[in-house]
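Methods — Computational structure assignment.
A single polypeptide chain was analysed. Its primary sequence is given first, followed by the predicted tertiary structure written as structure tokens.
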Amino acid sequence: MAKKQFKAESKRLLEMMINSIYTQREIFLRELISNASDAVDKIYYKALTDENLTFNKEDYYIKITADKASRTLTVTDTGIGMTKEELENNLGIIAKSGSLAFKKENEAQDGHNIIGQFGVGFYSAFMVADKVTVTSKALGSDEAYRWESTGADGYTIESAEKETVGTEIVLKIKENTEEDQYDEFLEQYRLKAIVKKYSDFIRYPIKMDITGSRPKEGDDKEFEEYTEEQVVNSMVPIWRKNKSELTDADYENFYNEKHYGWDKPLKHIHLSVDGAVRYQAILYIPENTPFDYYTKEFEKGLELYSNGVLIMEKCADLLPDYFSFVKGMVDSEDLSLNISREMLQHDRQLKQIAKNIQSKIKSQLQSLLKDEREKYEKFYEGFGRQLKFGAYNDYGVNKDVLQDLLLFYSSKEQKLVTLDEYVSRMPEEQKFIYYATGESKERIEKLPQTELVSDKGYEILYLTDDIDEFAVKVIAKYKEKEFKSVSSSDLGIEADEKDKENETEESKELFEAMKEFLGDKVKSVRASKRLRSHPVCLSTEGELTIEMEKVLNSMPSSPGVKAEKVLEINVNHAVFQSLKDAHGKDKEKLNLYTSLLYNQALLIEGLPIGDPVEFTNDICKVMV
């Protein structure tokens, strides 16, 4: 029999198919199953318009059979089959998809949709097979034909014997090489895993002969092997069921079956959208943080299905980074896929889906915050850092989306509060949202800088996470109220008359002398308007605060960052009198006191002192 040659462009495409179009060999089984499903769908469509044809779903299935001895893998379907001409056109001309033509003639009816579009998926079989044999008998035909090829060198078509309508594809699996092991595609456990991964929700049964062992009848100690035909796919995906049919347990079971996490999901979102882009989705907000969540190894993304067939395991484009903790899947029949069906041809539809998903996630989190505060706070404990980073990242482009989801510890309420709750309690005369930064709530409570704000009765937000201050700096203001650090040089609070009285010419000269001794360690030394009981503290001018300095200096990319520090002296404290006594009388003593106070202020802030030995010697000088 004369071998027919593929057309030149088809030959080149086939070589590309085998070597580069698909990233994973296991995809071949997904493609063959999808083609088989299309073949059954075509009978369904014909039954809609042909009164002589009855579609009984129970009669249609796909069967996978592996034979290790002969190294063959067979995929059989009871679909519409192909005539000799269709074998020639669909398999002899690469990238001419019979499914695509059929799809155009029969636009989606009754919720069914043809999966295949490109007509190249069949040739992925040559990634794992030396020879591919297709035997097919078309619906309404008495003749069957066999198409056979060993790859790019061409193909043959001849008459064949086949009793039933449908198609049988036999792959002669390649021998193992040093680099590649092909035996895996003859192992039932591996084939079953591939089906579950990519084709679990094909709407027709996918059958396999599964071998197991069981106790012999009448003897519990002896076991025998047995083989039985099993359906290995779920067929009806949970997302296509009505929400009213499903319970929380159903959603939790799906979460566990898909290995989205080892915890129990905090909330689920079930979407069924029938708009410009049709899609269905099930999204989960997890309860616990994955062990690798805040590492470079963590991969965000939702499973992406096209008409029930898995296209991508982690489609990162469906989630913004700040909602990267969300798990789940999206299924759409409107996606424009590329030739390998492993990625998207263009992302217009995906962007539309992603935008809607983002809105739904935010709405769910707001609902959780409002109605189930305890659950939200548990979620926030694990993922709040990501939300705050999202508000800060990209120069705050997403701050409006996220600011109402943020929580900070309140000095007044002694618990986590929202920005809206803080602003709603602000006295009329209060100009700013005040915050203090530190390693812990306990440490912040002892900060000297909080005294004036607390004395005024104003609430202070405690920022204990290293991302917190960066986030509020980017947010800048909430409901027209600006954020202000309690360490800021200008608190926006009027000075008391007592403070004004102490701003004498003598004190100015004293502070200038202290500044001269400290040099560029501080920008200035001045009388404090914020201190009440403490003798000294550091404040800052400009946008960079002391806490931000500490965070940035801990990063290898930005060492040596310095905030513009101001040394503030409490002129109502006894130490101020000691400074005045030393000024003009004993310069060495003034320098000693200045050094001690500066190092004391550094320690209060959790900053390292320049010379610990010198500091301890200075203390000894005061004591003797």
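Note: The first helix runs from residue 8 to 21.
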